[in-house]
Amino acid sequence: MSRQYRAITESHVTEFNGFPLPKGGGPYYTNHLDKIDKTIQCALREHPRTMAVRLDLHIPSYHRDDYCAPAYTGSSIITRFFESLNAKLTADEMQRRRNNTRVHPCRLRYIWCKEKVSSLHPHYHLVLFVNKDRFHTVGSIDMQSGERGLFNMVVEAWASAIGILSPNPTIVHMPVKAVYWLTQSDLAQKSPKICDFFQRAAYLAKVDSKHAEKGEHFFGSSRG
Q1: Which of 63, 200, 208, 220 counts the most CB atoms within 10 A of its CB?
Q2: What pLDDT is stored for residue 148 in this prediction?
Q3: Is the pLDDT of residue 62 over 90?
């Protein structure tokens, strides 16, 4: 069995590296749980105050008037998304500097998974990690507001990745209690807040409903 598909199979497993796992939520891919843990550690090592955001990315039904007929399958779609989002974060930083606004450094980190149950296209679950000193909220979810908040950047980046000409916020879903503010002390003490967050993030590592065509990945994370 390849490393990507190695899973926890013991029904009694209730924690991973000191973090609790959701009851009845498994089994999980152990290497994916490990990547979640390492991504949290890397994020907080660089940004002692980190905002983590859970989001879902959806691919709407094809419509020739609104879409550019992109390839909806393959790992390149999520790669395009993160490339676009990083570009928007860089452009935002440059604009702030031109406006003589103080800019805190912000390295984007992330974890993602691809799922497909009965829909025509797969959907993506992800967690973004950003410097809380740069982004302390996701900003407005109104695309007409003109605000360059994190949520609007995500919508625009996802629209670009799937070839939508007119970004629509309905393609990105933000679940209830999607935002977590984490600190290094939360990690060191395994605080209730970060334990709750890890349980939410562990959903991305569960075995059920993961979708991958031959040679493709259904889970990924940022490096370093």
Answers
A1: 220
A2: 76
A3: no
Structural domain boundaries, residue 158 = 3-221
Q: What is the pLDDT of residues 72-114, one digit of tens each?
A: 555 689 999 999 999 999 999 998 889 888 889 999 999 999 9
CB 158 within 8 A of CB 81: yes
Token pair 């490393």 in the structure block, residue: 3
Q: Which residues pair with 67 in a beta bridge?
A: 164
C-alpha Rg value of the chain to the nearest Å: 18
Domain count, the chain: 1
User: Helices marked H in the chain — which ranges?
Assistant: 30-46, 76-98, 150-162, 184-189, 192-202
Which tokens belong to 197? Answer: 């967050």
49, β-bridge pairs: 183
Q: Which of 4, 3, 2 minimizes the C-alpha distance to 211?
A: 4
* pTM for this entry: 0.88
pLDDT digits (tens, 9 = 90+) for 162-211: 988 878 888 999 999 999 999 999 999 999 999 999 999 999 999 887 75
Q: Is the peptide bond before 27 cis (omega within 30 degrees of 0)?
A: yes
Q: Which residue's structure tokens are 């992109």?
A: 70
Compute CA distances 182 → 28, 44, 47, whole Å.
24, 8, 10
The token pair at 141 is: 């979810």
| CA angle centred on 57, ends 107 and 125, rounded to 5° | 70
Counting every residue, how long is the chain?
A: 224
